[in-house]
Design brief:
It is a single chain. It is built from 23 helices and 19 strands. It has 710 residues and is an alpha+beta fold. It has 3 domains: 149 residues, Glutamine synthetase, N-terminal domain (Ubiquitin-like (UB roll), Roll), CATH 3.10.20.70; 379 residues, 2-Layer Sandwich (Creatine Kinase, Chain A, domain 2); 113 residues, Four Helix Bundle (Hemerythrin (Met), subunit A), CATH 1.20.120.1560. Strand 8 and strand 9 form a beta hairpin. Bound molecules: adenosine-5'-diphosphate and magnesium ion. The site of adenosine-5'-diphosphate (ADP) has 16 residues, from strand 10, strand 12 and strand 15.
Length: 710
Amino acid sequence: MNRTRIDAIERVAARKETIGNPKFELGDYGSDVFSIECMRERLPKPVFKTLYKTITEGSPLDASIADDVANAMKQWAIEKGATHYTHWFQPLTGATAEKHDAFLEPDGSGKAISVFSGKNLIVGEPDASSFPSGGLRATFEARGYTAWDPSSPAFIKRHQNGATLCIPTAFCSYTGEALDKKTPLLKSTQALAKAVKRLLKCFGENGGLMPKVTLGPEQEYFLVDKNFYFARPDLVQTGRTLFGAPPPKHQQLEDHYFGTIKHRVLNFMSDVEQELWRLGIPAKTRHNEVAPAQYELAPLFEELNLACDHNMLVMEILKQKAEEHGFVCLLHEKPFAGINGSGKHNNWSVSYGDRNLLNPGNDPHQNAIFLTTLCAVIQAVDRHADLLRVATAGAGNDHRLGANEAPPAIISIFLGEQLTDVIEQIEKGCLKSSKHGSLMKIGVDTLPPLPRDATDRNRTSPFAFTGNKFEFRAPGSSQSCAGANIVINTIVAESLEEIADELEKFPKKNFNEKLQLLLQKIIKEHKRVIFNGDGYTTAWRKEAAKRGLPNFPSTPEALGAFVSEKSKALFGRFNVFTEAELESRYEIFMEEYAKKIKIEGELSLSLARTVIMPAASKQLAELAKSIVDQKNAGITAGVAAKKAMAETIGGLLDNVDSCCKDLEDALKTGNQAPVVKAMAALRHNVDALELNVDDELWPLPKYREMLFIS
Ligand code: ADP
Ligand code: MG
């Protein structure tokens, strides 16, 4: 009998919760961050002033203050127990990277001193040859540079036996091309901020404030017990189950969503949150998600660059803490077939001072700014839906988008009934009534009344307006927030610049009238992207095709848009990506996709042949022997049933064998589409076997166990 699976269940059942000693006080919030306050306390006044300007206004870093900052940072980190420092960056692997150096250096007399200079703080030179560059950097020129990003504060990462000072950095090649996700993100934010400033100026807002892009990323994840995880080579190697029949009970009773959180899970969540709070990450909301064993963590929104860094840390800490609690945290977009996958809802907005531009305001002036921003986003999303799709592409997310649990791969905007009504009125040029809800006093006839509280929701929309922000729901749970927001920032910047080009020409006396005509024109041109209905239906797919909206179901189909002339012109204009950077990223994403599919294909094949087929043959052999034994003993009852079982299992075994051959051939072609197809056919038969083979002989933990036993 195969013991792996049964052992795993027994070990999970016998597990005793270790009760920690959680003690978190409000004052501990942000205690592991070298915050503005820390800097103010520890830096000479003029140094602090210069640095503060860099941080808050994005002015260039003054290298002459680096030594002072480094020294203060080092002292602080050592007091916190750090022995090492590292530049912490986000290469194109999708993860974060770090290379630690000790503060300690021998002083020549047999003793040691601590060393950390301004240069150590500002630049690093990690060997870049093993990071993806998509051909940007010849391997003989292996040098890469990391450069300090003062807008994201340094922090301490702790482990049981020590701590490390982490310095958020950008990562680029010897020749200056970006090799990371942070650099283009910062550039896109700058482009957007500039465009917003220009727009606001058209509305007479000349303040010196820098517009701020904000992000609140909701993070979904699964937890499975480590014992099951280790008994599933597919989870270990690919992050998802390549086989597994859906259990009779999964999520259909809807009893998990917002259900009582199990104490074992809650203990884990509390641990995660305390760690996040110490790092100044405002984890706010926790709950059970729709699928069994699925959960969500949502932070309060923050400035975009910081929120992106924080989300990388959230993913890392979820994984680490899960380990400590005997779980494994799965961030894959679709770990279990037939059950909801995990996304990362990207809540995006822009603010200026204490005003959110996507907040319908209380006065006509603010409403005009709101409607203009809204129309700019509509125009941007319609023009560049293909790029938004690129930003969410990936082998994992392909299983999720369009699987009737996540938004479809067709990008459309949900505005809600009330706002759509307003938009339709602008389009028609009659702007004096609103269909629903309380109306706002606006006092100017030429502007429409705005719904105060557009709270209706639509889970099926990829890009939904949710009252005061846009929620882009397509990004996958494992993806960095950078990709999606680089695109959103840049396309909205383009749209705003174009609108500002017009507004700047409008005479003051009939500015509002002219503005209205402009918005009317934008809506007429781009309203096809607005869709408030059910995005899961085939009717929408047809309708979207009729409207000419792009639909790229798979990653290789989607990625082409990244290197189109349109994309090159857009990103080039805003200095976000050079052509070479776009081409290299395209290469990297295509290659990553190909590698992932190849790994999945090879593992499917080897699991089918070395784990699944032997289990089925064993049962077949037992049945055959037992049928012969019965014949010899002269017992006929039950023989027919056994024969039927043997025929079913034998038939499926033959199917699996032939699917394996197909998969093997598909793998030889080097193309992904036939591999994906052959894997699906193989899985179909393996899952059928799971439902027929003796439970005791089945080697892999089943869905009903992984998702329900913890
Ligand atoms: P939901 O109903 O979608 O769960 P929530 O109110 O929980 O909505 O908000 C989801 C996320 O949106 C949170 O992370 C929240 O901080 C974020 N959010 C709220 N306002 C803004 C904003 N102005 N800019 C960016 N994100 C925001
Ligand atoms: Mg949400």
